[in-house]
Amino acid sequence: MPWGLRCLSLCIASCMTLWNGVELVFPPPCDSPIYCTGDLLKRVQTAKLFTDDKHFVDMVLREPPEQVLQNFQNLLEKSPGGNLSRDELFQFVNLSFAPPGQEFEPWTPKDWPENPQILKTISDEKLNRWAKELHAIWKSLGRKMKNDVQNHPELHSLIYVPYPVVVPGGRFREFYYWDSYWVINGLLVSEMKATAKGMIENFLYLVERYGLIPNGGRVYYLRRSQPPFLTLMMDSYMAKYEDSEFLRLNIHLLEQEYEFWMSNRSVIVSLGGKNYTLNRYNVQVGEPRPESYSVDLELAGNLTEEARQELWAELKSAAESGWDFSSRWYAGGVTKQTGTLRDTKTSAIVPVDLNAVLCQTERLLASFYKMLGNLSKVQKFEAARTRRLEAVQAVFWDTALGIWLDFNLVTKQRNKAFYPTNLAPLWAECIMDQSLVEMAVRYLEESEALSYRNGIPTSLYQSGQQWDFPNAWPPLQHIVIEGLAKSSSARAQEMAFQLAQNWIRTNYAAYEKYKAMFEKYDVNGDGKPGGGGEYDVQEGFGWTNGVALQLLERYGSRLVSGADTVGSSLAAAVLPLPLLLLPGRRI
Asked: What whole-number distance in Å separates Cα of residue 284 and Cα of residue 296?
């Protein structure tokens, strides 16, 4: 076990927090007494000095943390009863910290080409111009860390990585793990080999240092990860550049990250007298999320200390899923439509998409080791994938609905609600029988999800959370579209194109109106940005650009920019005409 992972495991196993006499095995988000825990963090965040809690924990220390904490203690001692006014606290913070963003220096990717080949394949003139503008956005999202981040890490919440990164945008000033999969794919479409490879090397560096890839590039994310896309990133890069030496030098780190998930995020599901090993999100870390401290503190309200710590751990597990937040993680399930964020119980859900990603990881690791001639490793990962295929079908497959569904460990039932991730096994090629493809296509056809011209909604339940209706998220569109497009079914392939056409039209229309790309979109209306959740919709936007460029690369000769591309009938105004005409579609 690597040093970083050993330390993490020991901390999770041994860190005890005493709350009102109750001993809880919940370590804080990280060891920093400024960025992750402590009185200064609590006072600043509860005083709401900034409109976004993330602002404070992204600030840069002007002095060593020990000195700042001593200065803070001295200030408290001079104040009657240790009480500071909001103005005094604000003044102290501005004297002790520099604003966020100071860790980066100006940087333009040297491998950015003026006219990538994709521009030659896009027939529609407006989409061609738009693609060129999307390609240019990479320059504005590129970031290179100053040497001070490496030389004085104690002054920063930013985690040092050796190569420049492309960030999502907006409040997300640092890299994020699963976002970067679609960013890297977009960079590869843009022929930015060095930038894409550098980002993969950063993630390999993090695995070697910490034993896992953090949720994002800040110390307060260190004890939670995100969906494990590292091996898939390597596959995207290898598919274009066939860099076998790069693979050979780093495959042990791909396997190491896989082992983190198997050692720390696995669960045994017992069904029909058999035990199946699958994976879930399960971050056993307490205290409020530093980047959303006041939100978490208020949500926990009048709960007991034990219940508060458990809720905060479940919220971090939801953040690890990337779906922060959603009714998908409510313990009672969305069918009751009574759940709130307090009901979040992420660790009780065994998710289809996480296991689809790991199924694909096992297939790719077997393929990589075969390429490198390590037959014993090939056998290991082929056997792991075979076990996963059996488990996915036994635990997730719902015969009545003809689709894969999340499994609830508490109720021992599948969640029959619609999520785009129900189709993730198609995208991951984690299926044993091709007849399942047709059943999954029919499930999608018959769902209400195809009733929206602006994209596939994240769910059909409007909880007020951003990973629910009416929001449509780029990675989920891509997972569904790619899954359908890769199948051998002509019907599925045509559906993939129509969904791609809808999504590109939505993105383009919003771009023309707002001159920006957004992290999510609203399936209602004319394709406006999405909303809900604990922060305003963000512009940029890394994975949105990456998905759009991939779809333009795949379908560039067929896609059109026109707002009215589906006819003018009443039915077509709700659902694209070609989908209405697909066999099996019920109206």
From this structure: 16
The angle at the Cα of 358, spanning 477 to 6, to the nearest 5 degrees, equals 125
Cα gap 501→345, rounded to integer Å: 36
CA atoms within 13 A on the CB side of 486: 15
Q: How many CB atoms lie within 10 A of CB 271?
A: 12
Which residues are identified as catalytic? 324, 519
DSSP string, 355-416: HHHHHHHHHHHHHHHHHHT-HHHHHHHHHHHHHHHHHIIIIIEETTTTEE--EETTTTEE--
Per-residue model confidence (pLDDT) at position 563: 54
What does the DSSP assignment read for 244-303? HHHHHHHHHHHHHHHHHHHHHSEEEEEETTEEEEEE-------S--GGGHHHHHHHHTT-
Residue 577 burial (CB < 10 Å; 0-12/13-18/19+)?
Answer: middle
What are the residue ranges spanned by the domains of the chain? 447-587
Task: Say what the pLDDT of residue 7 is.
Answer: 40
Place of tokens 């200065």: 71
Written as six digits, the tokens of 78 are 């001079």
**Quick check: helix, strand or coil at residue 54?**
helix
pLDDT of 434: 85
Joined together, the tokens standing for residue 232 give 């898939």
Q: Tokens 């959603």 sit at which residue?
A: 326
Residue 14 confidence (pLDDT): 35
- 545: how many CB neighbours lie within 10 A of its CB? 29
b/e per residue 367-399 (b: at least 16 CB within 10 A): bbbeeeeeeebbebbbebbeebbebbbebbbee
- The CA distance from 76 to 570, in Å, is 67
C-alpha–C-alpha distance, residues 3 and 331, integer Å: 36
Within 10 Å of residue 252's Cβ, how many Cβ atoms? Answer: 12
Phi, psi of 317, rounded to the nearest 5 degrees: -65, -40
Taking CA atoms, 421 is separated from 156, 164, 224, 455, 573, in Å, by 36, 31, 21, 14, 26
Mean pLDDT of 490-495: 96
Inter-CA distances, 133 with 190, 372, 439, Å = 12, 40, 39
- Per the DSSP assignment, residues forming a β-bridge with 407 are 350, 414
pLDDT of the residue at 165: 97
Angle at alpha carbon of residue 140, lines to 136 and 142, rounded to 5° = 110
Confidence of residue 299 (pLDDT cuts 50, 70, 90): very high
Contacts 24+ apart (CB under 8 A), 249-253: 250/204, 251/365, 251/368, 251/369, 251/372, 253/204, 253/207, 253/208
CB atoms within 10 A of CB 105: 12
Distance CA 228, CA 477 (A): 18
Nearest-angstrom CA–CA distance, 326 and 318: 8
Q: What does the pLDDT look like over 171-221, one tens digit per residue?
A: 999 999 999 999 999 999 999 999 999 999 999 999 999 999 999 999 999
Omega before residue 470 within 30° of 0, cis: yes
Q: How far apart are CA 328 and CA 317, in angstroms?
A: 12
From the CB of residue 401, how many other CB atoms can be counted at a distance below 10 Å?
Answer: 18
Q: Round to whole Å and give the CA distance between 325 and 99.
A: 28
Tokens encoding 527: 């394709």
